């Protein structure tokens, strides 16, 4: 197994691990807040704004939701964000078939920038959930700026991830020797999910998660597909095992007369 196949295999397994981690985090998020009639919504915490976050964390079951948010955000910071940053970088390399180049480097830069915005958002969310845990019953007003920072960082993150998907889709569409049209189309799915959730963070959150599941699932499949590809022999300028009578004829026609 060469370096290209190893990178592709790593990308495929990282994609599977990321999707499994998201499913696990969602299940544990619900389990930690199972006594609540309205469990914690990650999308609402990110994009809901001040009033929605205040009602989510200070209303009934606010302590359970704050505890769930704290656990999920710590897993997000130490596991999920580094994993998807590496996954997007490996995917750019295997789709473009090289590390260097305008499109792969642009895709990697966008993925890393999205991860940085995600870390900023997660750090602010941890600060809010910790404040709620230590100041039960207090006015939530001191957290207004922090919630605004969460909203801004989340929007930047999702825009950057959509841009990353668009660049990866472009790489698929211009891929040689044959374009990967369906994989490229799947990579545009997050654009629809992010557009929907910006207007309704709670009611349309499933579209956000579905969009990224489709796109990153397609990337994982592409990794396994590339890992199974066999290397072709290096091209030769003048192959010796292929007869080329046309060349002999051309030389005969161009030969000087005696």
Question: Strand portion, in percent?
Answer: under 5%
> What kind of sheet is the major sheet?
none
Class based on secondary structure composition and strand pairing: mainly alpha
Order of SSEs, N→C?
HHHHHHHHHH
Mean pLDDT: 81
Radius of gyration: 25 Å
> Which stretches are poorly predicted, pLDDT < 50 over at least 5 residues?
232-244
In whole angstroms, how far apart are the ends? 57 Å
Search tags:
elongated, 258 residues, 0% strand, mainly alpha, 10 helices
Please describe what this structure looks like:
This protein has 258 residues and is mainly alpha-helical. The chain has one domain (3-230). The chain is 75% helix and 0% strand. The chain has ten helices and no strands. It has helices at residues 3-32, 42-47, 50-58, 62-96, 102-134, 144-173, 181-186, 189-199, 205-227, 245-254. Helix 5 packs antiparallel against helix 6 (144-173) and helix 8 packs antiparallel against helix 9. The protein is elongated. The model is unreliable at 232-244 (pLDDT under 50).
What is the gist of this entry?
With 258 residues, the protein is mainly alpha-helical. It is built from ten helices and no strands.
Layout of helices and strands:
Elements: H1 3-32, H2 42-47, H3 50-58, H4 62-96, H5 102-134, H6 144-173, H7 181-186, H8 189-199, H9 205-227, H10 245-254
Helix pairs in contact: 1-4, 1-9, 3-4, 4-5, 4-6, 5-6, 6-8, 8-9
């Amino acid at each position: 197994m060469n370096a290209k196949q190893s990178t592709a295999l790593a990308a495929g397994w990282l994609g599977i691990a990321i999707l499994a981690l998201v499913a696990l985090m969602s299940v544990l998020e619900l389990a930690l807040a199972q006594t609540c009639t309205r469990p914690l919504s990650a999308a609402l915490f990110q994009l809901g704004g001040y009033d929605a976050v205040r009602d989510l964390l200070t209303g009934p079951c606010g302590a359970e939701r704050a505890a769930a948010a704290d656990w999920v955000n710590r897993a997000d910071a130490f596991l999920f964000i580094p994993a998807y940053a590496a996954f997007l970088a490996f995917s750019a390399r295997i789709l473009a078939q090289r590390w260097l180049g305008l499109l792969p480097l642009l895709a990697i830069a966008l993925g890393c920038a999205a991860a940085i915005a995600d870390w900023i958002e997660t750090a602010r969310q941890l600060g809010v959930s910790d404040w709620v845990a230590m100041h039960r019953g207090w006015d939530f007003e001191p957290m207004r700026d922090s919630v605004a920072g969460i909203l801004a960082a989340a929007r930047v993150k999702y825009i950057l991830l959509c841009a990353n998907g668009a660049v990866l889709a472009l790489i698929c569409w211009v891929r040689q020797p044959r374009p990967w049209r369906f994989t490229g189309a799947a990579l545009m799915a997050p654009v629809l999910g992010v557009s929907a959730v910006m207007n309704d963070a709670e009611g349309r959150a499933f579209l956000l998660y579905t969009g990224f599941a489709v796109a990153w699932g397609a990337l994982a499949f592409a990794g396994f597909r590339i890992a199974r590809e066999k290397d072709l022999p290096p091209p030769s300028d003048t192959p010796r095992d292929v007869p080329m009578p046309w060349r002999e004829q051309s030389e005969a026609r161009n030969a000087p007369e005696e």
